[in-house]
From TrEMBL:
Pfam families associated with the record: FecR (PF04773), FecR_C (PF16344)
Source species, domain of life: Bacteria
Protein name as it appears in the record: DUF4974 domain-containing protein
Single GO MF descriptor: sigma factor antagonist activity
Taxonomic source organism: Roseihalotalea indica
């Protein structure tokens, strides 16, 4: 597995040629490079050293290059994860070739004059963003979006980590594309929700109005899905199998409406969601993990405090908790 320090050095423009070679080998080795660029960036940007503006721009440029890279056809069909690794290698190789003539790797991926903006929400915080074209974005907690200051290309492309709801300004001449965890959602003028947290097993796209197409970023020739209002596309992030089904709009959009919704949720799922929602940390003895995950909980809380949520769930499921600043300890 790649060391965080080396990843940080690359994004800061401090890698030597030898260190970039290590990255090249790691991205090309299935045992070392199992995570996508999005997951690596989320891990890097969540460290105590905050990424600067140039680093954010590098990530956006890297994503754009991966999206634009058309993979050669082959009789042997590689799995999606392998295409991502090859794409990453091509981009890093491009960087290495320029490193010979430039001292600062920040300039390697920022050859374009376009500046990129990244909005990142920590746990416990949501935000509303207006993009340069007028598109409205509701960004969930533990999520980030990267976009250019001006949409100068033939498409309006943004990169998402986490979850966001988009109300896209109509422009038939410039499709709006959201890239998230290897999945592209393309729209002209519509409203939809994309959920693609790095730790999730699926990417979920729910369409509210208009029409969108959902495809795999690095396999554009593979048949995608066209969604109509009220439909949902679910993409497995390991196998990249995609299916379409009727959407539960209330469930999918609950977060945007400040509704905390659980449907047959396990304890682990509940604690993860509460950490994201309120910016806290749950701890419980390892021996109690199996016992906690044996039960399921269904409930709905609108604009509720953490204390009220915990009181309700603990009453139904008979567990105890203590709150110490931002740490909640759970005991059966």
């Amino acid at each position: 597995m790649l060391r965080n320090e080396l990843i940080e050095k690359f994004y800061r423009g401090e890698c030597t040629e030898e260190e970039i070679q290590v990255l090249l080998e790691a991205f090309g080795n299935p045992q070392k490079g199992e995570r996508t660029v999005e997951a690596l960036w989320e891990e890097f940007s969540s460290t105590t050293i905050a990424p600067d503006r140039q680093s954010e721009q590098m990530f956006a440029a890297l994503q754009q290059k991966i999206r634009a890279r058309e993979m050669p056809r082959s009789r042997h069909r590689w799995p999606q994860s392998q295409w991502l690794r090859v794409a990453a290698i091509l981009v890093l190789a491009f960087s290495l070739s320029l490193l010979v003539s430039r001292e600062n790797t920040h300039s390697l991926l920022l050859s374009s004059s376009v500046n990129y903006i990244t909005q990142k929400n920590p746990a416990g915080q949501k935000s509303h963003i207006r993009l340069p074209d007028g598109t409205q974005v509701h960004l969930n907690a533990e999520s980030s979006i990267t976009y250019p200051e001006v949409f100068t290309d033939s498409t309006r492309s943004v990169c998402l980590i986490g979850e966001a709801f988009f109300e896209v300004t109509e422009n038939p001449e410039k499709p709006f594309i959201v890239s998230a965890s290897g999945v592209d959602t393309r729209a002209l003028g519509t409203s939809f929700n994309v959920k693609a947290y790095a730790q999730d097993f699926n990417v979920n796209v729910v369409l509210v109005s208009g029409k969108v197409s959902v495809t795999q970023t690095n396999m554009p020739s593979k048949q995608g899905k066209i969604l109509q209002p009220g439909e949902e596309a679910i993409v497995d992030t390991k196998t990249y199998e995609m299916r379409k089904q009727p959407a539960e709009l209330h469930r999918a959009l609950a977060w945007k409406n400040n509704i905390l919704l659980f449907q047959q949720a396990t304890a682990s799922q509940i604690f993860t969601e509460l950490e994201r929602w309120y910016g806290v940390k749950f701890v419980h003895p390892p021996l109690h993990t199996a016992a906690l995950d044996s039960w399921r909980f269904t409930g709905e809380f609108e604009n509720a405090s953490l204390e009220n949520v915990l009181m309700s769930i603990s009453y139904v499921k008979s567990f105890k908790y203590t709150i110490d600043h931002n740490t909640i300890t759970i005991t059966p």
